[in-house]
């Protein structure tokens, strides 16, 4: 979608494969990097972050047992859920939530929407109402999985969603879990996180969600601790199987070197000067040649793309 609209050709400070990129300080709203932040594009399974937010804030019991029904199968036809959650599979709402966030499980996400009071239609209305409440004025949802290209948003809006989702410990825990074994009939099925960066020692990710459908390209949103700050990352419509991970690494490296490091250090010092003397934090060590920088550079140069990054 971004390629068709010319967004990939937009000049930016970094040569990224993503049509849209945004890095913003979660606490101050300071933008550290942006590329087409207002472009409205399909967001694929990034949708599931709003699905999780509605489920958690609805107050429905996470221990309630839910079953995968034929209508969940029909609604997610063509997705890889058919290899994982077979019709009749029974899991708790909490287990469905974990699989939707961690493994981007489409049938699990649809079950969550269908089991909402009033069904999927009421659930989607709640998703859009929450988006409006968060000030996500460029966002529209039509279903809870992200399989529809009509689920659309902008990087600016998704940064608001990430910030809201990060306030819920269970969303942070489930979205960054490494893997899970789930009983599926008579067998145990392993589910793994679709974001390989949750395993990366250089990343301290607090909440994340990946996404992929053909119309959306490879997408990822995250909130991660870096240089003593909580930074929100949004990458949309990345061209190439591993490109969203590569772009995230390029941005991380840029933030520790060159102009990005200068900007990060200057803003951190400005924030410290505004704080009372007793609350002033030590400025982050982001100078070129620092130990953290050296480690980050080495990781970017030598580490292959994680295998899990190829998932949705």
Task: Provide an overview of this structure.
There is one protein chain. The chain has 312 residues and is an alpha+beta fold. The protein has a single domain, classed as Beta-lactamase, CATH 3.40.710. Helices cover 37% and strands 21% of the residues. The chain contains 10 helices and 11 strands. Strands 2-1-11-10-9 form a 5-stranded antiparallel beta sheet, sandwiched between helices. The two termini are 17 Å apart. The C terminus is likely disordered.
Q: How much is the average pLDDT? A: 84
In whole angstroms, how far apart are the ends? 17 Å
Please identify, by name, the CATH architecture: 3-Layer(aba) Sandwich
With strands numbered from the N-terminus, the spatial order across the biggest sheet is: 2-1-11-10-9
Radius of gyration, in Å, reads: 19 Å
The major sheet is characterized as: 5 strands, antiparallel
Helix content: 25-40%
Low-confidence stretches: 277-311
CATH homology-level superfamily: DD-peptidase/beta-lactamase superfamily
Shape, please? globular
Helices and strands, in order, run as EEEHEHEHHHEHHEEEEEHHH
Reported by name, the CATH topology is Beta-lactamase
Class by helix and strand content?
alpha+beta
How many discrete domains? 1
Number of helices: 10
């Amino acid at each position: 979608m971004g390629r068709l609209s010319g967004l990939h050709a937009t000049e930016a400070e970094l040569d990224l494969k993503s049509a849209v990129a945004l890095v913003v300080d979660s606490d101050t709203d300071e933008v550290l990097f942006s590329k087409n932040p207002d472009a409205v594009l399909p967001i694929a399974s990034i949708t599931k972050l709003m699905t999780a937010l509605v489920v958690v804030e609805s107050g429905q019991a996470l221990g309630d047992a839910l079953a995968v029904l034929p209508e969940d199968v029909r609604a997610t036809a063509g997705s890889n859920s058919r290899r994982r959650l077979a019709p009749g599979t029974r899991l708790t709402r909490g287990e469905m939530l974990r699989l939707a966030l961690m493994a981007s499980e489409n049938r699990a996400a649809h079950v969550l929407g269908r089991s909402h009071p009033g069904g999927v239609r009421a659930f989607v209305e709640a998703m859009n109402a929450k988006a409006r409440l968060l000030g996500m004025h460029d966002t529209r949802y039509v279903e809870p999985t992200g399989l529809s290209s009509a689920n659309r948003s902008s990087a600016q809006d998704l940064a608001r969603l990430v910030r809201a989702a990060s306030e819920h410990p269970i969303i942070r825990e489930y979205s960054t879990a490494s893997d899970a074994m789930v009983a599926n009939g008579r067998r145990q099925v392993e589910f793994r996180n679709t974001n390989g960066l949750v395993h990366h020692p250089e990343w301290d990710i607090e909440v994340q969600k990946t996404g992929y459908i053909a119309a959306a390209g490879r997408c990822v949103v995250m909130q991660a601790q870096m240089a003593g700050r909580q930074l929100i990352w949004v990458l949309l419509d990345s061209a190439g199987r591993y490109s969203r991970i590569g772009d995230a690494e390029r941005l991380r490296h840029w933030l520790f070197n060159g102009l990005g490091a200068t900007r990060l250090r200057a803003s951190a010092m400005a924030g410290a000067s505004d704080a009372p003397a007793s609350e002033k934090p030590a400025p982050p060590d982001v100078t070129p040649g620092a130990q953290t920088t050296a480690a980050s550079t080495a990781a970017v140069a030598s580490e292959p793309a994680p295998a899990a990054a190829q998932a949705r």
